[in-house]
Each structure stands twice: as C-alpha cells, then as structure tokens.
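Sanity check

After download, print the first record. It should look like this:
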Amino acid sequence: MAEKSCYDYRIEPQDVDFTLRATIPALGSAILNTAGIDAHGKGFGVDALNAGNHTWVLSRMALEFDRLPGQYTDYTIATWINEYGRVLSTRNFTLTDAAGSEFGRAVTQWAMIDLASRSAVDLSWVGDAHAEAIVDIPSPTEKPRKVRAVMPTLRAEHRVVYSDIDFNRHVNTLRYIEMMLDLLPLELLTEQAPVRFDVHFLRECRYGATLTIGCESKERGAAFEICDEQGTAAVRASIEWK
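Expected structure tokens:
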C-alpha cells in the first residue's frame, strides 16, 4: 500500500514578514511546490501531462495553520493523495516542525484540463492508472469549504502583468492570495492565532486582464471575490482567525 511522501524545508528570510515569522503565501508556496515535486516523482507531473497536451490546475484549497513558524525553522511537509473523483483529485498535506509538532495542514483539489480547449478532463481512468499512488489515509482537516457570493466593503484593481502568470499562462495561485491578503489590516495578518483559509478557483485569469479584488470584512476574518472585466467571479475565498 502506498505511503505518505515527506519533504524537508526551512523558513528562509524571503519567507518571513517584519515579525520574522513565515507568511501564509510562503507556506502556501511550499505546499504547492511539494505537490508538483511529488507528482513529478511519481510520473504524473505537469511535464508528463504536457506530453499529452494536458495539465493540472488547482480548483480548491484549504489551508490551516495553528501558528506561523519563525525564520530558519526546519520543517517537513508530508503529502498524499487519497481519492480521485470524476473531476477532482484530492491531495493532502501536514506540516511538522523538527520537534515533531504538527503546526499546519492543507487539503487541495485538482482538475486536469486539456490545454487546447481549456476544459476539464474526465479523471475516471486516473484512479486505476495510478492506483499505487493512492494512500488509504483520510484528509487531515475538512475539505475546502464553498464560499458563497461576497458583498465587498473594500475594492482594489489589479492589471495582470508578466510576474503574475505561471507555466499554465494564467495567474499564479500565490499571486491571487497576495492580492487578497493585501487588503487586510496588519494587526490581523500578524496575529499569532490559528487561521483557516479556503479558496475556490472558478475561472482562469490571463495576461493583460484588469481584475477587481473585493473584500468583505467579517469579525476576525474576511471574504474575498476577484472578478474579471465583465464582473464575473474568478476566485472566491474566506479567511478566519480563531
């Protein structure tokens, strides 16, 4: 039976803010990099899929951090896939420091798309083709929660530029997260309290688009909606400090 895969990291100076603790985008980046490294090592990474004119795209993500570790903290990310549906694959993560204390966890759900049509590919065959990669261990936390329509109390605009786009030629996941978090007050972003961040990606945003980032403030948190020029929601998210 397949087992979790583990990868070692360190909180480097570029990963922290002025409090010298890791930022949510930095930890999110390590989590998504782990997904790519593990998929590549098991033979179904983006490079392998591109040969068949397919790629993976992130559809939903839930991040939970009990605390944000300090600069130069060594930690390990464990990852495993525990299910394939017709449309989405579920990949899980736990983050543990060198003392063996778990401080974070994540659940991500991925779709495979056809690069020509940009439409989703049926994943029914993947569960059989890569059955040896499925680990019979449940997700470490609740799957990504659906974020309903948002009523923004604060808005900002952002034009998608070169530094925003990734290898799939759409806006990078971490850039969306940074756009949203930049609308929050510093006292929330730097608070040392458990935090949960749910993100749903609804449609692609490409180079040159002008996006509107809306933020609805809530008690100890916020909801976000990023829309394209037509006012169509591309990303919805919510964040809550406990």
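If your output differs, re-run the checksum step. Summary of this record's structure: The longest helix spans residues 24-41.
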